[in-house]
Amino acid sequence: MAGAPGSMLRRVMTRHYRLVVDGEGMTISARGGATEIAGVIDRPDLQLVLARILALGLTLRSLEVLDGGDDQPEPDGLAAET
Q1: Of the candidates 17, 67, 59, which has an alpha carbon nearest to the alpha carbon of residue 34?
Q2: Contact status, residue 60 vs residue 53, Cβ threshold 8 Å
Q3: Beta-bridge mates of residue 34
């Protein structure tokens, strides 16, 4: 291989992937150069999803509440913000 002594050229292969995961109620779609995940989940599951997004090194662009939910109190007794 050509190049500076001690350097290695690395060929990066790009491929088209489809990931299938267990679960229900969540949809994933592409929109405006970003991937959007939406669905009905409770706060502990939301925290797990956010942790996984960060663990993958992805950038979270936004997070918004799409509806009022089922209005059940949080486990710590605090009501969700509206």
Answers
A1: 59
A2: yes
A3: 31
- Kindly tell me if the per-residue pLDDT of 44 is higher than 80: yes
Provide the pLDDT for residue 18: 79
**How far, in Å, CA of 49 to CA of 43, rounded?**
10
pLDDT at 70: 63
Who has greater pLDDT, 19 or 69?
A: 19
- What are the distances in angstroms from CA 43 to CA 12, 32, 67, 76? 38, 27, 14, 11
Distance of CA 15 to the CA centre of its chain: 20
- What radius of gyration, in Å, describes the C-alpha atoms of the chain? 20
